[in-house]
Amino acid sequence: MIQGIAIDVKGTELVERVNARAAHHEERARACDAQLRQLRTGTPAPVEERGSAIRGAIEPFSEETLERKTRQHRERAQALMFLGQHIVPDEIYRVTEMDLRAADLLPDRSPLGDWLW
Q1: Average pLDDT for consecutive 10-residue bins of the chain (117 residues)?
Q2: 3-state DSSP of 85-109
Q3: What is the pairing mode between strands 6-10 and 92-96?
C-alpha cells in the first residue's frame, strides 16, 4: 500500500528549481527595499508600482510593512540558497508535499483553500 504522495526528482532539477525560487525572493526583497527607499525619501512611486512589492495590494505600504517584507524575502532566499548548496546533484530525491513546500516549490493556499499564484 502506498500512503500519501511522494515523487522522485533528480538532484539537478531540485537545485535548478530551488535556485529559481531563491532568485525570485531576492528580486522581491530588492523591490520592497526600493519602495522603502522611495517612501523614506518622499519620492512617490509611479502609480503602477504602488503596492507591487506585496502581491494583490493596491495601497502604499508603511515603512514597517516594507521592512518586514524585505527581511522575510531575504531570509527565505538565504534559506533556499543554503538548501540548494546542499542538494547532491547526482542523487534522486524522494520528496513529499512537505518537502516541496519547504523548498518553496508549491504555491501557497489561501485561508479558503484556493491556490495563490
Answers
A1: 86 97 96 92 64 55 92 96 96 94 83 56
A2: HCCCCCCEEEEEHHHHHHCCCCCCE
A3: antiparallel
What integer pLDDT is reported at residue 90 of this predicted model? 96
Q: Alpha-carbon distance 34 to 53, whole Å?
A: 9
Provide the whole-model pTM.
Answer: 0.77
**How far apart (Å, rounded) are the C-alpha atoms in residues 14 and 94?**
11
User: Domain coordinates of the chain in residue numbers?
Assistant: 6-102
Per-residue model confidence (pLDDT) at position 115: 53
Q: What is the DSSP string of the chain?
A: ---S-EEEEEHHHHHHHHHHHHHHHHHHHHHHHHHHHHHHHT-PPPGGGTTTTSTT--SPPPHHHHHHHHHHHHHHHHHHHHHHHTS-TTSEEEEEHHHHHHTT-S--B-TTS-B--
The Cα 75–Cα 73 span in angstroms is 6
